[in-house]
Structures
1.
Amino acid sequence: EIVLTQSPGTLSLSPGERATLSCRASQSVSSSYLAWYQQKPGQAPRLLIYGASSRATGIPDRFSGSGSGTDFTLTISRLEPEDFAVYYCQQYGSSLEPYTFGQGTKLEIK
Amino acid sequence: QVTLKESGPVLVKPTETLTLTCTVSGFSLSNARMGVSWIRQPPGKALEWLAHIFSNDEKSYSTSLKSRLTISKDTSKSQVVLTMTNMDPVDTATYYCARIKYSSGWAFDYWGQGTLVTVSS
């Protein structure tokens, strides 16, 4: 099973600042199958990025994804008030355990 | 417009079997490049993938829960059903169904609102 480790656990920033969230895999992940989600309290997750760097429909261009192999990054260029939420990375991989999620990064207002 | 909606009991007793239904609209369960997964989230904790099913009836399960899970679909009713046996209080969680799509790298592009299931006697 591929384990995804997200860091930091909590990130405290102010609106307008740049956020950089990390997702590290225990073994190499195909870039085609790495995704990022945003979850706000009481809501279902929302797909932000798929294929490591492709924005999902309707996602603002301040959200960007990058990385390959075992290290992936979600960047929010200029934080808006509505961006404060929990973010999860997820990979689709082996047939033995197709999907795993990271433990999440909470992005909070400083 | 793609929608998914979970339904099922809000409260189950320990050792009972949970049956959840995901009713989809806006796409067909017979679409070769799509499938449906079940994912859960205990209160205050991270997401955990449980199972998925594709149009060709290919199924896959979480390794840790495989012995307790069964996923099936009724294409004519646009429904995907998940059963989980021998429920325990640690299974208390919000259960989501989500669509998976080949062109999105098999990511979960649409989610249901989720249904909170509490396991308690």
2.
Amino acid sequence: DAKTTQPPSMDCAEGRAANLPCNHSTISGNEYVYWYRQIHSQGPQYIIHGLKNNETNEMASLIITEDRKSSTLILPHATLRDTAVYYCIVRVDNQFYFGTGTSLTVIP
Amino acid sequence: DADVTQTPRNRITKTGKRIMLECSQTKGHDRMYWYRQDPGLGLRLIYYSFDVKDINKGEISDGYSVSRQAQAKFSLSLESAIPNQTALYFCATSEGWNTDTQYFGPGTRLTVL
């Protein structure tokens, strides 16, 4: 069973906010949600993680719903270099479970 | 210098050959991982190690073995390579504290003919 569900693709205009949704309805109370991105076939790059509260760092913001069944990654001002596949990941029993991710294309 | 390095970066081999992929890290992390990625799919965990004496199977360990030679080194072996092991392989490390964020190497592209 998929641990996370994401839309397969999204477009975003350059300079606009990119909002990437993720469903993780089976998440347990102490499991973190992580977001990574992968540009071409490079190694995945860590973006942000969260448990219950919303989080923000220099790359992005993470909004987690109160019931923790879904979250949204926000890239506040998307640039062309943000074009990548974005993975929403849940860690279960010490293992990261990647879904198939969302391919984000930032359009000039 | 990169914190997590993988060798080789590309490898083409034949069915039945033994192959070893190596991973080294300078992050000082105790935990190391091997993943494979097939085209259009996310990463899947093969093996992970929480310290030199601790090795665990992941989601897809059949056909693979690993060796943790030191804190900084973790090798993945294919004893007898087969074509459906053609994939992109990634090594990762984590420090094991609290949230256990993983940091990935650049990947090894393996083709089995």
3.
Amino acid sequence: AQSVAQPEDQVNVAEGNPLTVKCTYSVSGNPYLFWYVQYPNRGLQFLLKYITGDNLVKGSYGFEAEFNKSQTSFHLKKPSALVSDSALYFCAVRVGAILTGGGNKLTFGTGTQLKVEL
Amino acid sequence: EAGVVQSPRYKIIEKKQPVAFWCNPISGHNTLYWYRQNLGQGPELLIRYENEEAVDDSQLPKDRFSAERLKGVDSTLKIQPAELGDSAVYLCASSLDPIWEQNTEAFFGQGTRLTVV
């Protein structure tokens, strides 16, 4: 079974400071990892993904994430937070290789509320 | 390009009544998902379609929930009868065929917020 853990329910950061939202995963096989953001009363918006290659991936709105296989982590980062970044962030995982039979099942974490203050 | 379209956006019904949600995925996306998101929690998969075939419905409460994706395009999710605990946001998402690994992310609709009273 695959799973995602987001250990922090909420992260508070001052505008202009760097932010990190943590995510660890468990999956049998090669992981495909994703970050989504959700604003109030909206659906989930795709931010970035790791499929293969460079461990540091860059996504929308200045966000990036670093894949660490040994620590089974995929933390979301941004060098300088904005108040408009305040939202609910979800990490998700699926099994990569079709040959493992993982198909396309996407499993989400419980979410981390990011609050950026002036 | 139009995104995933869901309707209605909001629905309030009395318990024991039926309700249906509709989803039109992004054109060309073969995989379609229905998720349920309870307040303060992450989305939980209810059912996943590859074209018109339901390939994962293990989390769907089959005694009251049903879904269909005729012709492998749009989909409906039905609850009959609804219970108080069904109050949640129902999200539909779609993605390209998994063979195309570089385009594997799912795109979500805005969801239907169901309130059962």
